[in-house]
Amino acid sequence: MQSIVLLGSTGSIGINTLIIAKRYNITVETLVAGNNIDLLNQQIAEHHPRRVVIANEADKTKVNHPDVRAGSEAILEAIEESQSDMVVNALVGYVGLAPTLKATSLGKRVALANKESLVVAGEFIDISLITPIDSEHFGLWYLMNHRPFSKLYITASGGAFREWEIEKMQKASFADALKHPNWSMGDKITIDSATMTNKLFELLEAKWLFDTTDIDALIEKKSIIHALAEFKDGSTTAHFAGVDMKLPIAFALRGEVNEPILPPTDLLAMGSIEFLPIEEQRYPIWQIKEHILANPHLGVVVNAANEEAIEAFKHERCSFFGMSEIVLDAYKRFESFKAATIEEIIAIDKEVRKYVK
Fold it and tell me: Where do the domains of the chain lie, and which CATH numbers do they carry?
């Protein structure tokens, strides 16, 4: 009987993973969640995990389960104790890195939605054990099919401010940045979508996953095309699909899927499709795109500075564009850094955060 460890069970990826697990009778051995205890208790009642891990010790008594642990160390222990050979990592942010390293060090497969794992430490992770469940990377994998390609493209929605005047963006609030035009996601990923940091991270992930720097991103506002592959024969193919993570999750858990997971794209209802460039004036982070693809080890610097910059913006200590300024400043400051070990990655992460603060 197939079983999984699910990290980030109460987020949108976690919820969709549980739908797929139920559909295919996959046992959920471990649930890891943050602060949404009410939803976690519903998931426990439905899926009967062997163990549960939450973020805060203080919430343990609210969880309806005999084996409840708390904190980041408890996540690593739960992975080590598990019989499952598949870990679904849907944690958000740097906190997701240690579980990815732990799972792969034990030879477990990781269905990865945690961007930061590869962004921060791609060269220290066994890519052969990683299956991406981001819609963009799944789309690329789906299209490539072992054929020789010349360039890969992923698409961006453009985020909350894609139609705003640049002047108006200077005064945008945290709440404004959370109004995504296409879907509802957590705070961090929605802010990263508005700054285009999210897409920079996905380019870095693709570099590690597909071993190429021939990759770029374009804006496609309807979010119907997720990826395109340009082949050496001169042809280009596109991956059309609804905005629904169940398809990549099903492939990650099952290996092969031969039945409808999504309704087909209605081409007539879709209407015209337009691709637009990502402009540095609106998305200043894009200035470093070429440099970071050539120096992917600097992902740890961008990630640490970005997480701190989002906190500063949230608490009105900087403007919307101030976030990009913070990240670009840290990037220049630590440009000569290159980690030789994972311990050096952990140390530089702390150093960058201290510098930014």
Answer: 3-132 (3.40.50.720), 162-195+285-357 (no CATH)
Distance CA 40, CA 13 (A): 14
Residues 6+ apart with CB under 8 A from 323: 191, 195, 306, 309, 310, 312, 313
Gap between the terminal Cα atoms of the chain: 48
Question: Is the Cβ–Cβ distance between 127 and 150 less than 8 Å?
Answer: no
SS3 at position 123: helix
CA distance linking residue 348 with residue 19, whole number of Å: 38
Task: State the Cα–Cα distance between residues 115 and 92, nearest whole angstrom.
Answer: 8
Instruction: Identify any residues that bridge with 236 across adjacent strands, giving them in sequence order.
Output: 230
Q: What is the structure's pLDDT at 180?
A: 72
Long-range contacts of 37-41 (CB under 8 A, 24+ apart): 37/62, 37/63, 39/10, 40/9, 40/10
215 pLDDT exceeds 70?
A: yes
| Region of poorest pLDDT, from 8-12, 185-189, 334-338 | 185-189
Cβ 228 vs Cβ 194: under 8 Å? no
Residues 29-46: pLDDT tens digits? 999 999 999 999 999 999
Can you tell me the distance from the alpha carbon of 13 to that of 243, in angstroms, rounded to the nearest whole number?
12
Amino acid at 328: L
Q: How far apart, in Å, are the Cα atoms of 42 and each of 24, 53, 90, 268?
A: 19, 15, 19, 39
DSSP helix/strand/coil, 46:
helix
Which residues, 6 or more positions from 354, have their beta carbon under 8 angstroms from its beta carbon? none
Could you give the CA distance from residue 354 to residue 351 in angstroms, rounded to a whole number?
5
H/E stretch holding 15 reads helix 12-23
**Beta bridge mates, 238:** 228
Element (H, E) at 130: strand 130-132
- Predicted TM-score (pTM) of this structure: 0.91
Amino acid at 321: F
Whether residue 310 is predicted with pLDDT greater than 90 in this model: the reply is yes
